[in-house]
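hi! just following up on the protien thing from before. the input was this:
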Amino acid sequence: MVKKQPQESEKTTLDTKVKIKAVLSRERVLAEDKGEARTLYDQSRFGEPQEGKIVYSLVEGLYLLEKKKMLIVDSKKKKMSVDSYVQRARKVEPNFWIRYVVYRDMRMRGYIIKTALKFGADFRVYDRGVKPGDDHARWILYPVHEGETLTWYDFSAKNRVAHSTRKNLLIGIVDDEGDVTYYVIEWKRP
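and the predicted 3d structure came back as:
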């Protein structure tokens, strides 16, 4: 028996049926708070519910786009590829790619990772099995490229932010191949 190949319009419908449909809006990605978007939030805490929408950070948007869980369009309703998305995101966040490499690595290791702008950090990381809202994040995470210089002043400031929020400092150093090495800094009393 010969299987009939779906026509182009059928393929599009099949491919996007379970995907979250979202719009890139400068520094965030917006989707309706329903269906797959709500399910994914409830299961894995992708995005943040706000006023009938699920709002995703740029790194979350790219991760879901790469995983083929999200279809993202620009303001002109044009479907975005991974390359066009990264190009736009880099205009908004010059350090976007380094941040994304660390985000993707942590997600693939099973951690929930969220932005930490209110703490003055890049990310907050929750221990495996812990969802935001159920407990506090364990680490404050700063992504750094291996070629960057981190002064003692910068290091001290990052460490103080982590300590003042009762979290451990985690620095993710990204090399030129995109591999990430993590260093945990903890306060110890002698």
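Residues 1-16 have pLDDT under 50 and may be disordered.
The longest strand covers residues 139-145.
cheers
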